[in-house]
Amino acid sequence: MSRLRIYEDNKHEAPVAVLENHADIAAALHAVGVRFEQWEAGQPITPGATQDEVIAAYRADIDRLMAENGYRSVDVISLKPDHPDRAAFRQKFLNEHTHSEDEVRFFVAGAGQFTLHLDGKVYEVLCEKGDLIGVPDGTPHWFDMSESPYFVAIRLFTNTEGWVANFTGTDIAERFPRMNPHASAGQTSEA
Predict the structure, then answer these.
(1) What H or E segment, with its residue span, contains residue 128?
(2) 158 burial level (CB within 10 Å; 0-12, 13-18, 19+)
(3) pLDDT in tens, the chain (191 residues)
(4) Number of helices and strands (H, E) in the chain?
(5) Strand partners, 103
(6) Rounded to whole angstroms, what are the CA distances from 104 to 62, 83, 156?
(7) Nearest residue to 112 via CA among 94, 99, 95, 85
(8) How far apart are CA 78 and CA 131, in angstroms?
């Protein structure tokens, strides 16, 4: 189940709101300029699938998004718990950063956690299969996949160089909860 926890940015101990209804999550994120939609992830893709397999399975959705929003490149991140570089991949996204373009992700399997820092609040968004999130350019955020990653996400870019981060240099991400291994990975249930 997708979930949004909202915190004051100086109080990481307990959220001020927890939303689990998809429409409520979408409305709360829309209010701060973040796109959150439920898409149909109907193709049988599992973590470990190759980029070519995922793009071929979702070609129609990818083409539609690229045409609607002017995206110029696409890639796929596909990780499962036994990936030899999972710790390095996780560390790459864990600190607060921004991008000079919108960050758009469509989860076609598993789950990942985006955490956004906006207007004195922290929005922790657990994205699951079928969720599409669009984080506007310049939004401070970080991403966690847990120590046992299990997800496949299609990434769309207006920048042909792909993922380019500008780290803010703050330690705020270290003070907020990390993602627990997701139930879809056959690990412990999401806390």
Answers:
(1) strand 121-128
(2) middle
(3) 899 999 999 999 999 999 999 999 999 999 999 999 998 877 888 888 889 999 999 998 899 888 988 888 899 999 999 999 999 999 999 999 999 888 899 999 999 999 999 999 999 999 999 999 999 999 999 999 999 999 999 999 887 777 789 999 999 999 999 999 888 776 443 33
(4) 5, 11
(5) 135
(6) 11, 24, 6
(7) 94
(8) 15
Nearest-angstrom CA–CA distance, 158 and 25 = 26
Q: Widest CA span of the chain, in angstroms? A: 44
pTM of the model: 0.90
Pairing verdict, β 3-8 and 17-19: antiparallel
Token pair of 169 as six digits: 């240099």
Q: What is the DSSP letter of 120?
A: T
For residues 152, 157, 159, 161, the Cα torsion angle rounded to the nearest 10 degrees is 10
**Residue 34 contacts residue 134 (beta carbons within 8 Å):** yes
The count of other CB atoms within 10 Å of the CB of residue 80 is 19
The one-letter amino acid code at 153 reads: A
Output the six-digit token pair for 93.
């996204």
Contact 102, 137 (CB under 8 A): yes
Do the beta carbons of residue 178 and residue 144 sit within 8 Å?
Answer: yes
